[in-house]
Design goal:
Chain A: This is Autophagy-related protein 13. The complex is a heterodimer. Chain A is an alpha+beta fold. Chain A has eleven helices and five strands; from the N terminus they run H-H-E-E-H-H-E-E-E-H-H-H-H-H-H-H. Chain B is α+β, with helices and mostly antiparallel strands. In chain B, a hairpin with an 8-residue loop joins strand 7 (about 95-105) and strand 8. In chain B, helix 1 runs antiparallel to helix 2. The chains are: A alpha+beta, B alpha+beta.
């Protein structure tokens, strides 16, 4: 314990600085967990009401809570028994399940001191530096990214302040502890620490009730998310937020890739051997355009492999087109024939003959059964699918230029491109300038 | 007096270079700035207030703090972009380093330029990586956010050590310690240098150049 005694004036100054230091620290911590980006202005001229030369706007409720917490403590932080001041951040689900994420703690240790430090200059400036370190460190813990994604229907972030030793037992087994800064005074040392959870696990009564679900915060919700059977936890001096509680799941901190894959394989009917999203999507795309009875519609869709080019949908459509082209030609011929007949039949109809309703026997009907639409072939969806299955032939397949014509065409194109080299260079430099400008505005 | 130095190394993609260096340098500069001094008389002055702004990274899931000053952000980003462009033009797997050096000036006679004495040097070594798949990119993106978080805590730990920082001089000699060219803030005098491939020859060349300049 330090034997050095501050004079009354310095002691009063240190008390006042400490009080505002603790309130500002609480403001920084709580404001960093509101879920939004902050910006404050630098002011060249001191306005008279900004502590520590930092532009930190105060939320009145936080100041009131902090002062109440400090007032309820029997002694000041700098006086024995030096009760630490703690701010606890937790996450709450709509079911009122709570998980503590981190505990920030400002403590005072009288075993380390430096009598040469001047209260009104050195310590005040050191407090300013530590508050800036706190601003930087609050963005560096995992809770910051979680707080940016909070919303009323997923989860919200709560805070709690108390005087006393920091409670770290509910941060999980592998919590991490970091020091943000320290200030050595003539009578002791302030230390600002944070202990934060690294594993988002919950061991709650929900496990015994058989409720299970794997949740990555903000992405999936548990199975009984909308169940009426809820646990009501007591709310202390908390500020809101609910959060989909996670029961009995150990979700590693860095697993968005696994979650993506799980979502894809669980959402699709394709076998789970197709892990990569592009394969799954491709199989689905293929199945959508397949018709029964063709080579494009195998019984086992899950065995499709992208490497098999002969099964490409486009090639399939080309094959179908060849078949349908013949059918179409026949169909168009039949249609012309039918029109002639219709004309004569119309003539007959006009004269009152009602025997014209039946189609000719040699008319081939290609029935399209859309996979989720009406089975009526006049339905828009069926017409659309038919037009996709029978696209018009590309011009390049009808008109095939000779090798000489192709080379001439290429030479012509090259000449045009060479003449416009300067324009292309200008475009590239414009893109580069825009890219740099966008980077500058980002920063 | 020997300048204390700290080196951070990163192996990242080309497009992440600017953000990583910006995060490191701005975190450091936020601690190495004071409010703008406004002199009221010969010995009276007031100190302005520093603002801060959250900046989200585009190529990794991380947010860092910058001092709210358009001029400072422009100065830093110009230098970082020059370094990034140089590095990316050098080749796909090139490496380089960029330094943020804080110095103070010492007058050495009326005929000579003030001597520049560094008191803190932060070096960032970048090794450019080429990733081939989206899965690798996603993995690197997450890993980089963890690394940046670790570096931010390291920076705050280093800055909070009771090491030498130039004392504010007399008002007439502010320019020897602070960069007073900014209108809204007042950082300690600093300069940013970079090279694409740190070699002994480059290092010796730099030392000789500085010695030659300071002796004039």
């Amino acid at each position: 314990m330090s034997d050095f005694q501050l004079n009354n004036e310095d002691h009063e100054a240190l008390e006042k600085f400490t009080k505002f230091f603790l309130v500002k620290a609480a403001q920084i911590i709580v404001q960093s967990r509101l879920g939004e980006k902050k910006t404050t202005k630098s002011k060249p001229v001191y306005s008279g009401n900004e502590w520590f030369h930092l532009s930190i706007k105060d939320i009145p409720e936080v100041t009131v809570n902090a002062k109440k917490c400090l007032g309820d403590a029997q002694h000041l932080l700098i006086d024995p028994p030096h009760c630490p001041f703690c701010v606890e951040i937790s996450l709450r689900t709509p079911d009122c399940d709570t998980i503590t994420l981190e505990t920030w703690c400002i403590s005072f240790d009288d075993s380390v001191s430096d009598p040469s430090q001047r209260v009104r200059f050195n310590i005040y400036n050191r407090m300013s530096i530590v508050l800036r370190s706190l601003l930087a460190c609050t963005r560096a813990t995992p809770t910051y990214q979680l707080s940016r994604k909070q919303s009323a229907d997923k989860y919200i972030i709560c805070y709690k302040m108390y005087s006393g030793e920091p409670i770290v037992s509910h941060l999980g087994e592998h919590y991490s502890k970091k020091t943000c800064g320290s200030i050595v005074t003539p009578i002791g040392r302030f230390v600002l620490n944070v202990a934060y959870r690294t594993r988002l696990t919950m061991s709650s009564p929900q496990i015994e009730n058989g409720i299970s679900g794997i949740t990555q915060f903000g992405i999936d919700i548990k199975n009984d998310h909308f169940s009426l059977d809820r646990n009501q936890n007591s709310a202390e001096e908390d500020n809101d937020a609910q959060l989909p509680s996670e029961s009995n799941s150990s979700v590693p901190k860095s697993s968005p890739i696994e979650v993506m894959k799980r979502r894809h394989t669980s959402c699709d009917s394709v076998s789970s051997s197709h892990g990569t999203p592009d394969k799954v999507y491709y199989s689905k795309l293929r199945a959508a355009f397949a018709t029964p009875g063709t080579t494009a519609y195998p019984s086992n869709v899950g065995s499709y492999s992208r490497a098999n080019d002969s099964d490409l949908p486009f090639v399939l459509m080309m094959q179908q087109q060849e078949n349908n082209h013949q059918q179409q030609q026949q169909h168009s011929m039949e249609q012309e024939h039918q029109q002639e007949q219709q004309h004569t039949k119309n003539h007959y109809y006009m004269s009152g003959d009602s025997e014209n309703e039946t189609a000719p026997d040699d008319f081939i009907l290609v029935e399209v059964k859309p996979f989720f639409g009406k089975s009526d072939s006049t339905d828009d969806l069926a017409l659309f699918i038919r037009s996709c299955q029978q696209p018009p032939m590309l011009e390049s397949f009808i008109v095939e230029p000779s090798l000489g014509e192709t080379i001439n065409q290429l030479n012509e194109e090259l000449r045009i491109f060479e003449s416009k080299v300067e324009e292309f260079d200008q475009l590239v430099s414009t893109l580069d300038t825009n890219h740099k400008a966008s980077l500058c505005t980002t920063e | 007096m020997n300048a204390r130095s700290q080196t951070f190394e990163f192996a990242i993609e080309g497009r992440q270079i600017a953000e990583v260096i910006s995060c490191m340098f701005h975190t450091i500069l936020f601690h190495r700035c004071v409010g703008k001094y406004n002199t009221k008389g010969s010995d009276n002055y007031s100190v302005g207030t520093l603002g801060y702004t959250d900046i989200d990274c585009d190529y990794t899931d991380f947010t860092y703090i910058v001092t709210t000053s358009q001029e400072l952000q422009q100065t830093i980003s110009d230098k970082i972009n020059q370094f990034q462009d140089k590095l990316r033009l050098s080749g796909l797997n090139s490496s380089g380093q960029i330094t943020l050096e804080f110095y103070q000036k010492k007058k050495s006679g009326w005929m000579f330029k003030p001597e520049e004495i560094p008191w803190e040097i932060w070096t960032i070594k970048i090794e450019q990586m080429q990733l081939s798949s989206e899965n690798e990119r996603q993995f690197m993106r997450e890993k980089l956010s963890d690394v940046l978080a670790e570096r931010v805590f390291q920076i705050t730990e280093i800055i909070n050590k009771p090491d030498y920082v130039p004392k504010p001089p007399h008002l007439s000699e502010l320019d020897l310690v602070f960069d007073t060219s900014y209108t809204d803030i007042q950082p300690y005098l600093f300069k940013i240098n970079f090279s694409d491939t740190p070699t002994i020859a480059n290092h010796v060349r730099t030392i000789l150049k500085e010695a030659f300049n300071t002796s004039l």
